[in-house]
């Protein structure tokens, strides 16, 4: 049933509705239970042993490299294997390392600003209405390309002409429904592939990555580590541990970056602008903070540094609230109970039961976020004592939890904290048609209309 709900793209609302109707524990499949609340979160995604491994839900997301199906950091269900392949690259994702990439992010940010100026704010501009959601998506793809390969994917330069390429990069909606029925995948699709000797299709991202690796090999930079992008770090890890990290593994590190990062970061950026535009008082507050800081010489222009952005408390509150209001992942993060089973909320689940929580369910939990948990209110992150603040932050599943927490969280934070003030410093953005009837940001994200805005250059 959950799979059928998944097809229209509104599964996150279905989970919330089910938990509102039936409480903390909702059985959604023969062996599958959706849970809510902090105790369940601690039991399933806590970092102490036993770790609940990922379920077969993740198998259909496997791709093919050089004709071989492979598992990556995101979709492997083996915890030991996960630890082994994560260890050699985890430092590449630490914030201290990422700050070396600030100039990469700034370069892409400047391209975004330039495109917006040329296309929408000049007297000779050739496009009237700006679909901000699309530009934020091109931006997120180009940043991850720049950080991973030292080369942007060129989507900002292409503008709307990038759409056909991007549509090939996204997982098909049917694939999402299949992830809810892994037995179908195991029983039908996998044997069928074996029988027809087919592997999952190679994606354009894999092809792009393989081409970049060939460039590196040809130009001799494979071993020298002189280009400090992520690919060079992955190649360095390969040099240190050739038995563990072959060329396919290097490709998988790089492709996971692109596949897992662009849509998620773009959705979060889009949600932030959507809620700010729908709630002008919060936009005004943020504008005053950013423009005031610029006038006082406290932040750089047009690109704000990460360190400067950390001193903008309202920006911080807006980003936390956007991540809470619209987690990019709406499906339940499915895990398998360990062999000895587990008891949660007085109910025993034997080993092999599928349990999980949707990041949306925890984000709307009134016990954690208060009675106005359904509402956009960045101020919730500026009031209350430190304990409450850390309880709210620690409850979030927007970036997942436990050993499988998003490895790219810092990359997306770097983008969010830098590009929002850059856009607001330069432009006055307003919604073309305020649509009060939109229930959530999701409804315009899936609509053809998109986040249509007017942008004017600030004087
Ligand atoms: C706002 C942006 C992002 C959000 C909301 C997000 C969300 C998530 C979530 C919820 C998970 C856990 C999935 C699960 O338990 O099933 C995850 C894992 C992962 N994410 Fe992200 N992500 C974001 C950005 C990124 C970026 C920028 C990258 C890489 C450049 C990335 C790479 C990954 C990888 C490789 C994993 C698997 C980690 C592991 O299991 O060790 N993500 N992400």
Automatic annotation (TrEMBL):
A GO term for molecular function: heme binding
Gene3D superfamilies associated with the record: Cytochrome P450
Protein name: Pisatin demethylase
Pfam families in alphabetical order: p450
Source taxon at top rank: Eukaryota
Family as reported in the entry's similarity comment: Belongs to the cytochrome P450 family.
Amino acids binding heme: 406
CDD domains: CYP57A1-like
Single biological process term from Gene Ontology: methylation
Source species of the chain: Cyphellophora attinorum
